[in-house]
């Protein structure tokens, strides 16, 4: 497993950063370094990292200094040497590690430099008796490589860690100058082994968050979307870039394949202190294809589904095209059967999202206790405007009818101009069909999970063949 990780890291180091073109149909995520810093800080606040580190140290030592500590019999600075007075100082142990402040710097084509500024507290007995309390400021500096794990997820790997000891304060008690030097040298020896494991623990928590990129997101009764990495991660001075491949599957497990774009998507630049996700046209089209293949776009419209002010009888229909429809039985209710036999097409361009749905519209006379009688058939195309709204994990769509065009499809005893029915049919579609369609679209377009970035308040921009969501870090 480790050989695979190092091979991927070596290959990743040869990759050049993206120039703003998304060649694949994937979802492009650019995660600002501020989000990584937040993830590291939150792992220290919410997790047991500090407690684990402190517990490990205090459970294995009986005091850093003194006859049984690091300076006693065979310790780091054994008793009897230059600092013979050390036997008067005993039982000095670590009691607390202050919550570190995190700062980081992205290292292009390598990974991240993480610095943790913290304080450690030491308690013990002073050489003159009484309680001795010390506090030492420490910077923990580490270089972390970014690569791909054997599971196919982004992973941070600790490559080098060192500590820099800062100011040491005596909070309580008395510590003579010679012993102060002993404590300082001891801390230089001890701190790397104490605090560098904390970095490893932090990376473990962050890697769990990065691992959520590889996830299976359900689409209700339609199917699911599985996110995987399409290419190796890239890194710039300000952000980590992930090209994430969404694999859409039907409820039966079949992969829904849609043509790749003829031209790469030109992704707009990302501003500092923001994170960005680009949702490709592919995802929109595949969701609508799932709706079509599941029959979720088909609907039988009966008089019960429309308000009383929308006419749905043969008498009303005759009035719209009297020259061709005079042979209809008068006063009978109508049934409109909409059937979508081809996948709808989504268009994303000019800051606008539209959906085109081709539908066969069968017009029948409707007898509640009888068998509907076919009157004629229309070929129609519904063009709908899509309003887009992001939530934390999805991009939601709400459709409204812009126009409906129809033409006569089936032979009819008297030919007539079907376009005269378009206004009436549009009213029916608006009140009966579009609301049902919006309910089925409630599944939304899934967004990849990266470091728990919340896109609920993201700014939304529709570009050519994609939607870009940008959220401040």
TrEMBL record:
<feature type="domain" description="Lipid-binding serum glycoprotein N-terminal">
    <location>
        <begin position="30"/>
        <end position="272"/>
    </location>
</feature>
<protein>
    <recommendedName>
        <fullName>BPI fold-containing family B member 3</fullName>
    </recommendedName>
</protein>
<dbReference type="InterPro" id="IPR017943">
    <property type="entry name" value="Bactericidal_perm-incr_a/b_dom"/>
</dbReference>
<comment type="function">
    <text>May have the capacity to recognize and bind specific classes of odorants. May act as a carrier molecule, transporting odorants across the mucus layer to access receptor sites. May serve as a primary defense mechanism by recognizing and removing potentially harmful odorants or pathogenic microorganisms from the mucosa or clearing excess odorant from mucus to enable new odorant stimuli to be received.</text>
</comment>
<dbReference type="GO" id="GO:0008289">
    <property type="term" value="F:lipid binding"/>
</dbReference>
<keyword id="KW-0964">Secreted</keyword>
<feature type="signal peptide">
    <location>
        <begin position="1"/>
        <end position="20"/>
    </location>
</feature>
<dbReference type="GO" id="GO:0005576">
    <property type="term" value="C:extracellular region"/>
</dbReference>
<dbReference type="Pfam" id="PF02886">
    <property type="entry name" value="LBP_BPI_CETP_C"/>
</dbReference>
<comment type="similarity">
    <text>Belongs to the BPI/LBP/Plunc superfamily. BPI/LBP family.</text>
</comment>
<dbReference type="InterPro" id="IPR017942">
    <property type="entry name" value="Lipid-bd_serum_glycop_N"/>
</dbReference>
<dbReference type="InterPro" id="IPR051660">
    <property type="entry name" value="BPI_fold-BPI/LBP"/>
</dbReference>
<feature type="domain" description="Lipid-binding serum glycoprotein C-terminal">
    <location>
        <begin position="271"/>
        <end position="471"/>
    </location>
</feature>
<dbReference type="Pfam" id="PF01273">
    <property type="entry name" value="LBP_BPI_CETP"/>
</dbReference>
<keyword id="KW-0732">Signal</keyword>
<dbReference type="InterPro" id="IPR001124">
    <property type="entry name" value="Lipid-bd_serum_glycop_C"/>
</dbReference>
<keyword id="KW-0325">Glycoprotein</keyword>
<keyword id="KW-1015">Disulfide bond</keyword>
